[in-house]
Amino acid sequence: MILEMKVPSPGESIKEVEIATWLVKDGDYVEKDQAIAEVDSDKATLELPAEASGIITLKAEEGDAVAVGAVVCLIDTSLPNPSIGGASTPEVIEKPKEIEIKVEVAKATPAVQAPPSGVVGHPSPAARKILDEKNIQPSEIVGTGKDGRITKEDAVKGVPSMGTPTAGSRGSQRTKLSMLRRKVAERLVAAKNETAMLTTFNEVDMTAIYGLREQYKEEFKTKHGLGLGFMSFFTKAVTRALQLFPDVNSMIDGQEKIAYDFCDISVAVSGPKGLMVPVVRGAEKLTFKGVEAEIKRLAIRARDGQITVDEMTGGTFTISNGGVFGSMLSTPIINPPQSGILGMHNVVERAIVKNGQIVIAPVMFVALSYDHRIIDGRESVGFLVAVKEALENPVEILMDNNPKKALEL
Q1: Catalytic residue among 64, 132, 304, 376
Q2: Does a structural domain hold residue 91?
Q3: What is the 3-state secondary structure (H, E, C) of 337-363?
Q4: Which one, 102, 178, 313, 352, has least CB within 10 Å?
Q5: What percent of the chain has pLDDT above 70?
Q6: Which residue range is the domain that position 29 belongs to?
Q7: How far apart are CA 342 and CA 320, in angstroms?
Q8: Domain-terminating residue out of 81, 113, 135
Q9: Which of 36, 56, 81 is the last residue of a domain?
């Protein structure tokens, strides 16, 4: 029986996928549910499992764009597995072909004599000296003298200028962008062109959070098996600020505004195929432990290529942490159709003023990019100030003055 394997639908809005990698070769025996290919959609890379056991025949090449529902391979379920004693294809022994050897006698050619001074491409003595000093071949210079002779001026002008590469590899390689990367590019350009994007900045004194992490990180890890990172503090601060300024947690649909009474936070993470943005659902209801556990789960799935389209769809606001790569400051691009994104950056000891005194403190710059069509300056600045206040006073604002209870210790 020949089974036609068709491309399943990864999501409601996805109409085609791209064959990223075949994990098997044409004619291989595959087992049911074995991963036979990786396919790129415009939102994620997914594995394609075999629907039955048998010999596979590929019907698409790597890099091909294939419509959802189209046949990508055939599986002959009537053929046994050759590796476990089934019938095997007999080897065909080909008769050796006669090899025709041609021996050509090279004709003697006269020795090439050095061109006389004054012919095309021949440098003058002064030009020869300059070229030898700069290790430049005469063939690299176009002569402007009589009969193409290379003059001293030609040699001087032909010397590579400072910064011009003259040695080493100068190769290039052209590869097709994956469907995921092409879609990310389209969305980023659309966000810049179709929104009235503006960015506002602030700085956060991380002293209190550093103190809390130093005091409770070992106990937190021992009890929950999780690290106590910055993301839980930022997520809790963001969900509180979104409830105070709901316009930041809304989006435009045509001529209407859609406002949400829940906070599904998209978290930008770096995966093997590029930037992915899985969603922490109902983040406003999660504890510090719940946020850390969910972000860890999603990050592992993104890293292992197991993230699904549903896990990256439907966020209402995005947090991007460029600080893990050393970024000091950036203007993050909105993740459409959302209206806002918060950019975190690295923490650096800086001189700040506290109580009239100059002190050294760990400081992070934060940036809020927002769609000015729906979010006014009051809401955007107020939102970012609310985030700053919560991060600089987490015990009172985020933990109800009881850190051990908030951290479930």
Answers
A1: 376
A2: no
A3: CCCEEEEECCEEEEEEEECCEEEEEEE
A4: 102
A5: 84
A6: 2-81
A7: 6
A8: 81
A9: 81
Q: Which residues contact 98 (CB under 8 A, 6 or more apart)?
A: none
Q: Is 310 exposed, middle or buried (0-12, 13-18, 19+ CB in 10 A)?
A: middle
The predicted-structure confidence for 341-376, as pLDDT tens digits, reads as follows 999 999 999 999 988 999 999 999 999 999 999 999
The pLDDT, as a whole number, for residue 117 is 43
Catalytic status, residue 224: no
10 within a domain of the structure (yes/no): yes
Domain count, the chain: 2
SS3 322: helix
Which is the catalytic residue, given 132, 147, 372, 400? 372
> pLDDT tens across 74-83, in order?
988 888 887 7
pLDDT score of 29 more than 60 = yes
| Contact predicate 136/156, CB 8 Å | no
**CATH at 342:** 3.30.559.10
One domain for residues 380 and 231: yes
Question: Taking the model in full, what pTM does it have?
Answer: 0.65
